[in-house]
Fold these 4 entries.
Entry 1:
Amino acid sequence: MDENTCFYGFSCIANSDDKIASDLAKRLLNRKLFKYQDVIDNKMIDKMRNKLTKRGYDLRYYFATDEVKQRPYQPYKGDELSAIWILMNNGKILELSEASNIVHSLVHGENKNEEKMFFPID
């Protein structure tokens, strides 16, 4: 599907009798996208959910959380087929995280975990 096809579909849905589907389609078409905020604790989530509920939003469609975990490379852990092996100039074969200082620092560095919540602002 290309962008034009998607926008045609959204424009059809924008005229739908389904108020939620219509509203969400109009938000996409008019670039009135949901905002996001980093989640610090569950109290923040509860507070936002309560706020949206009081404003009449159906949380199934107007609120979401997402947790992103980033670990660029996971080293060999017993499954030789999943590992990346490097033939060194001296003839030794090493797993990528042993052969590269950059990859080694990524593997042994801090994993990045972020949680965000998404919601409309009107």
Entry 2:
Amino acid sequence: MLDIQFAKSKMENEEGMNHLWIQVHPEDPLQTSEIQIQLPEGMYRSKNLSGLVENDQGHIVVDAPYQDVIIEIFTQDALECGELTIVVSLLTAETTVH
């Protein structure tokens, strides 16, 4: 299971920045999992600030239970105002949770 929160409830549409806090609560704490983050066009992210490994697919490898992951989300150019969706998935050998 994932708990996801933003540091700020809204993000500026031009040169905006926010932090995404992801808490991982695995059903099987012995199983390695990966976090996949899909951003809308015009939004970008830094490498995770938690020091976890990111693989060739850009997934964050979670190799210990109950780890917190912090990601910086930002824009470089002006985006159209409105609601955008960020998809965060927890991938394991058996399941995918969105």
Entry 3:
Amino acid sequence: MRSAMREEIARLKRERILEEARQLFFERGYQGTTLDAVAKRLEVTKPFIYSHFENKAALLGEISERGTARSLEAITRAHDREGDPKMRLADAVEEFVQVLIDHRANVAVYFREQQYVPEESARKIDDMRAEFDTKLAALIQEGVDKGQFRVRDVGMATLALGGMISWMYTWHRPGGRLSDAEVRANMLELVMNMLRASCGA
């Protein structure tokens, strides 16, 4: 029990470090942020950070991986369950959009700072993005096969759909004129129009 408690405390400490590092990377950029600045924001010493992360690059790697991992989880849930492909894709799109809303800073930091992401993290992200594209393409193809989508090139549609939603980090702002639900609904409408989805199930 004590061991579990220690692990939970360590996890919470790591999360706090990641939270502040992510915000500073987002505000100042990776190159413009020092571990001293992260420590100051947390009101801790730099050795405290080193006790949880090897270096600043390790922070960037974990921050960058998270947005991609959440996106993959969303498409995997829709891909792996049975049922109507159009409805499954709709659920995946709405969840994917919410990931971009909830993890905007993670996504922004990754795209802005890709050149500094550690090689191991970059490989993991590339693998996750490839799996995401494969599963999204399979869902779209299933809808095409059932006459629910009309797409000339499934591969191109996959990249266009993923790119359109991923790019949300450049324009979506928390507290804007549209609620999260409205953003999800509007993005879903754009996706379905792009796929020329049938009106029926």
Entry 4:
Amino acid sequence: ESLALNQEEDAVALKEKEDKIEKLEKESRSIENDLNSSYAKNEKLEEWIQHFSSKLKDSELLVSSLRETLQDTEIESARRDDLLEGVAKSLVKTCCDLKLKGNS
């Protein structure tokens, strides 16, 4: 009877341990799935980061190019303003000279 009782207790203890092992295995699989999901999300985020980093670099290059173009345009505009001012002064001088010749 004592032996049967010990066997029964051992069987109950074994069943509890098996249940505990099964529960731990399920938790382990769940954690592994969560990790795999996290890795996949991290990879996707890394792709997005690389994509936007590339776009940012392209934007920075474009801004730099636009600044250079603006600077070149401002320089060209100032040069043309100087030329127009010179032409205007020359026209005024020519008109004054013609007026003086006409009065003579």
